[in-house]
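Exam review. A common question shows you a sequence with its structure tokens and asks you to describe the fold in words. Practice with the pair below. Do the first one on your own.
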Amino acid sequence: MSSRGSVIRTEVRGLDLGLDETTLLLSSAGEYLTAPIPLSPGDAEKLAMEMAKAQFWEWNQIDELRRKAEKRYKNYLGSWLVMCLAAFSAYVGFPSYYLPVFLLLLSILLWWRASFLERKDEQAAREERKQFIPDWSYIRQRLDESTATDNGNLPDPSE
């Protein structure tokens, strides 16, 4: 690989995806499974960026974090809308405050429910993290594969 080349070790054991300048390579245990796939410079640059992003843990978690935030905002938005409706009904029905008080209580209930669901999700995530037991044998095997690759045990793609 050149200085610009990069390799991603996939979750399929022994299957590696490599990019060397403008050539895409698919290998397994040091053997190339396909002929080198030529790419245009623009496509190669996009693929290199995607390969770099795929190696960041944070990048892989963005969609999950966005989904949780949207759910939380939706729950709290309902409470705010009911509160605005309560304020408007207090303005419209001046002498009678039964409807605004009812809507106020409903808004408080919705706000409490949203925070309760958020705390419940956090507690479930905490419990799941407590039960997690890492399997270091898989990590060690991948590191051994990486060390074997770095020592030059894989053939040169330019040959």
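Now try the second one, then compare your answer with the model answer below.
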Amino acid sequence: MRYDDVVLRWAKIATILFTAMAVVADVCGVIITKYIAYCWAEVTDQPRVIALGVVFYIGTVGGYTVLIPLFKMLCNMSKDKVFDRENTKLMMIITAALIGIAIDCVAGGFIWSGCWILTIVALFMALVVLSIRVVFAKAITMKEEMDLTI
């Protein structure tokens, strides 16, 4: 078994576990949101608690929008489809979802300042994924040009 196969297998397992954690977070979202609002954000008025809950659930939708394409991309890589246009499309979906999560966290930042940190993290991750996407796209173009010269 190749080293790459082991890494891809563990990455798929981690993606599945993160998806399961997102499902649990969705199920327990009301409790989690109230805990964050009352204990961390020190928010007690009902409209802001509800707004924080909405921000939370929109964020989990963004999380699924990141995790599902990531899992598909890992499956493609397991099939030796690495530098493929489908993977660059999946990376664009992931980047857009991360930017959406950042925008969602900006809204939450007006209720709880901890959301600003999440905004910065989401934007940084979007930048990394977008940079890797550019590298993949360039490699695909170079590969196609080499295929034409042979």
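Model answer, second protein: The two ends are 32 Å apart (CA to CA). The chain has one domain: 3-149. Full marks require stating both points clearly.
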